[in-house]
Amino acid sequence: MRTILCENKPGYARKQKFTKAYKARNTKKN
Hints:
- This protein is mainly α.
- It contains 2 helices and no strands.
- The protein has helices at 2-7, 9-29.
- It is rod-shaped, with a radius of gyration of 12 Å.
- The model has no long low-confidence stretch (mean pLDDT 72).
């Protein structure tokens, strides 16, 4: 799975951005 993410760097970066926003949202809720 890690290799696939590394191969697809643009998608990985986008995913990271999304996860960051999602995490921030979760912290706000808590």
